[in-house]
Automatic annotation (TrEMBL):
UniProt source species: Actinokineospora auranticolor
Domain NAD(P)-binding: 52-186
Name of protein: Uncharacterized protein YbjT (DUF2867 family)
UniProt-listed PANTHER family: PRESTALK A DIFFERENTIATION PROTEIN A (PTHR43162:SF1), PTHR43162
Chain coiled-coil ranges: none
Annotated transmembrane regions: none
InterPro entries: Ergot_Alk_Oxidoreductase (IPR051604), NAD(P)-bd_dom (IPR016040), NAD(P)-bd_dom_sf (IPR036291)
């Protein structure tokens, strides 16, 4: 293992597995590790070797020779715990887990939902594993407006949600990846839980105004009640259960549970987080 000093810390030049390596966060982690010259293995069904959360028989080959792992959990299946156990058995020493905001906030989410259970159980498994661990808990991604939840609505010119006047300090996925890379390659993040947000909380009216300025097109926010929102989704072909689940995901915004600014980016990286205005101008300029 080669060690390269960087600002008084240690960069571990060993194989790192990034699960979800082609996804929104994972691919950025891969890009940043590659740019730093760190050997990285892309964990995906199309990877070499392939990695599939639903096929445990693919895990050992993906973990072969790996010292550190970035874990992007399966969205609905509680596979993190057995995977962490396999990491320990195959010689992995360090794990960085992508979790979610609100895991330990009463009333934030239905802890009986599959997604919440994945995060709660995954965090518990990582903390009890005996591995060097770091947990990363981001709020809503800024990229949700360019490549995620809200992109189609932005392109249509209207974001219709039951979010009320709630505000969110959207975090740039590049910052999430940078924190993950630091935790994977530096020796000062063990036992840390980093809550990640941007520097300012914005309402959807403010977000759509920013996007409108950046794109030169009018994008507006239309607040709906939960009932109206669910009914619209069902009309579009969603099942009532799926529509209700989506409404529940939006609910913390409406109840101001997403508003707080977190200091995780500064704690991990020693710099302020990227702001939404800069993100929007850059993202929509291309």
């Amino acid at each position: 293992m080669v060690r390269v000093a960087r600002e008084g810390l240690t960069l571990r030049m060993s194989q790192i597995l990034v699960t979800g390596g082609t996804g929104k966060t994972g691919r950025r982690v891969v890009q940043q590790l590659t740019a730093a010259g760190v050997p990285v293995r892309v964990g995906s069904r199309s990877g070499t070797p392939p990695f599939d959360w639903t096929a445990p028989n693919t895990w050992d080959a993906a973990l072969d020779g790996v010292a550190s792992v970035f874990v992007v959990p399966h969205e609905t299946e509680p596979t993190t715990r057995p995977f962490i156990r396999r990491c320990l058995e195959t010689g992995v020493r360090r794990v960085v887990l992508l979790s979610g905001r609100g895991v330990d906030v009463p009333g934030y989410a239905d802890l009986e939902s599959p997604m919440a259970h994945v995060h709660v159980d995954g965090e518990a498994a990582v903390r009890a594993s005996g591995l060097e661990w770091t947990i990363v808990r981001p709020t809503w991604f800024a990229q949700n407006f360019t490549e995620g939840f809200f992109r189609d609505a932005v392109l249509a010119g209207e974001i219709r949600l039951p979010a009320g006047k709630g505000a969110v300090p959207y975090v740039d996925a590049e910052d999430i990846a940078a924190v993950a890379v630091a935790a994977l390659t530096e020796d000062t993040h063990h036992g840390q839980t980093y809550e990640l947000s941007g520097p300012h909380a914005l309402t959807f009216d403010e977000v759509t105004a920013e996007i409108s300025r950046a794109t030169g097109r009018t994008v507006r926010y239309v607040p709906l009640s939960e009932e109206e929102f669910i009914a619209e989704l069902v009309t579009e072909g969603w099942s009532p259960a799926e529509a209700s689940d989506y409404a529940a995901v939006i609910s913390p915004i409406r109840h101001d549970l997403e508003t707080p600014i977190s200091d995780g980016v500064h704690r991990a990286l020693g710099r302020p987080p990227l702001d939404f205005t800069t993100f929007t101008r850059t993202a929509w300029a291309t």
